[in-house]
């Protein structure tokens, strides 16, 4: 929230592509932060101050896919063109919206079916806030994170973090959210992910997770970013 007051922290990372959940539309951002000038932006949301934004910088440009459907809140298919051309499924998986669940399947699981043709068009990455971890999986539940990871793997995608760190799902040493009380020793989980084609994963040169003191400790967010992914 209030991304217009925090965008300089994002720009300091010098991103090519940024996925920002809970941010305002580009029109709202331009009013509150006129110096925030991404090359392109794609945004979806029910209210103009809180949605899912994809912003590109440098030589990259994003365009929303014509295949977009609004029944998987909030997940949007985006075409990325630039030094690397690929499809991108940006994720802010909201589990409390009216359209979140159908036949007990959550938004991410359903989006992998809804956008199967989009994912199959060309190399595709899936990234953002999944709001899930295998620690919360329950037997017989159809929306388990482990099932979703398996579906992504069937599509030839692997988690950049888990591949680079050689860690198992649910055993992450670096959390991406400091939940509820926002304390370094409070509840913390790994719920933000970047899934990329397996052949891309072999070329990862660096990957890091934001530090608590830089993002949560100074009040920017309860999340920290996954950053410095270089291919």
Structure characterization notes:
With 231 residues, the protein is an alpha+beta fold. It has a single domain (3-227), classed as Endonuclease/exonuclease/phosphatase (Deoxyribonuclease I, Chain A), CATH 3.60.10.10. The chain is built from eight helices and 13 strands. The protein has helices spanning 7-11, 26-32, 107-114, 116-121, 145-154, 160-165, 198-201, 212-215, and strands at residues 17-23, 40-47, 50-56, 61-64, 75-81, 86-92, 124-129, 157-159, 177-178, 188-189, 192-197, 208-209, 226-227. Strands 4-5-6-7-11-8 form a six-stranded mixed beta sheet. The protein is globular. The relative contact order is 0.11.
Overall shape: it is globular
Distance between the termini: 30 Å
Strand content: 25-35%
At the third CATH level, what is the topology name? Deoxyribonuclease I, Chain A
Number of helices: 8
What layout of secondary structure does this protein have?
Layout: H1 7-11, E1 17-23, H2 26-32, E2 40-47, E3 50-56, E4 61-64, E5 75-81, E6 86-92, H3 107-114, H4 116-121, E7 124-129, H5 145-154, E8 157-159, H6 160-165, E9 177-178, E10 188-189, E11 192-197, H7 198-201, E12 208-209, H8 212-215, E13 226-227
Parallel strand pairs: 6-7
Antiparallel strand pairs: 1-3, 2-3, 4-5, 5-6, 7-11, 8-11, 9-10, 12-13
Key traits:
231 residues, alpha+beta, Deoxyribonuclease I, Chain A, 6-stranded mixed beta sheet, 3-stranded antiparallel beta sheet, 8 helices, 13 strands, globular
